[in-house]
Design goal:
single chain, alpha/beta, Rossmann fold, seven-stranded parallel β-sheet, two-stranded parallel ribbon, about 20% strand, globular
Length: about 240
């Protein structure tokens, strides 16, 4: 698997596992709003860290000025709201759309011009099976936002396919992450909530973050050079 060496790879969010990219020889800039979590990555060779709020246009533009060259942009920041449309007030709707969709709009708009200048670039967005792929109970605004990510991905891919730009999105099912565990613990019966999530997985288990990271690395590599505009599902058969 081939990844660019001595270049800049921009990563957002923990599920993408920047270590997976660094192991392939990529130079990674890992960003997050959680500075303490970022500091844990500094020990890994090839990874730089930057505190970044991906909903803040000014912070994004400042980072774009700092990064001279970028080969791969991974947009992974996200928020999961629990509930139907009747449980979703305007504040929930706006916050979800800001974090899950507007952040990607801002990031792509800031870094795509650099890719166009160098006539090459690769954008990977985090979507979800809970989107236009599958209706999932109590995920109204989340699913709406992730369907929008699929639309954004296909639009960018179509507009810039002849200028050396690829754009794909990854659509996981339920992934075992610290965020998921926190949401499970917040439920009235955490043990039953976990059992219910596992029960709906046709393989009988949740996905690991490492498994999703492998798909990110593939889409970032030369081995996927003919892949663009795709929604790449990794859900253990949940959407079947």
């Amino acid at each position: 698997m081939t990844l660019p060496l001595e270049e800049d790879l921009l990563h957002i969010g923990p599920v993408c596992h920047p270590q997976a990219f660094a192991k392939e020889g990529a130079q990674v800039i890992a960003t997050d709003v959680n500075e303490s979590k970022l500091r844990e990555l500094e020990a890994f060779p090839g990874i730089q860290v930057r505190v970044l709020d991906v909903t803040n246009k000014g912070q994004i533009e400042n980072l774009a000025k700092e990064v001279k060259k970028i080969d791969v942009l991974c947009n992974v920041a996200g928020y999961v709201h629990h509930g139907t449309i009747l449980d979703c007030d305007e504040k929930d709707w706006d916050f979800t759309m800001t974090v899950n969709v507007r952040s990607m709009y801002l990031m792509i708009k800031a870094f795509l011009p650099k890719m166009l200048e160098q006539k090459s670039g690769n954008i990977i967005n985090m979507s979800s099976v809970a989107s236009s792929i599958k209706g999932v109970a109590n995920r109204c605004v989340y699913s709406t936002s992730k369907a929008a990510v699929i639309g954004l991905t296909k639009s960018v891919a179509a507009d810039f396919v002849d200028q050396g730009i690829r754009c794909n999105c990854i659509c996981p099912g339920t992934v075992d992450t610290p965020s998921l565990r926190e949401r499970i613990q917040a439920r009235p019966n955490p043990e039953q909530a976990l059992k219910d999530m596992v029960a709906r997985q046709k393989m009988g288990r949740l996905a690991t973050a490492e498994e999703v990271a492998h798909l990110f690395v593939y889409l970032a590599s030369d081995e996927s050079a003919y892949v663009t505009g795709n929604q790449c599902t990794i859900d253990g058969g949940w959407s079947l």
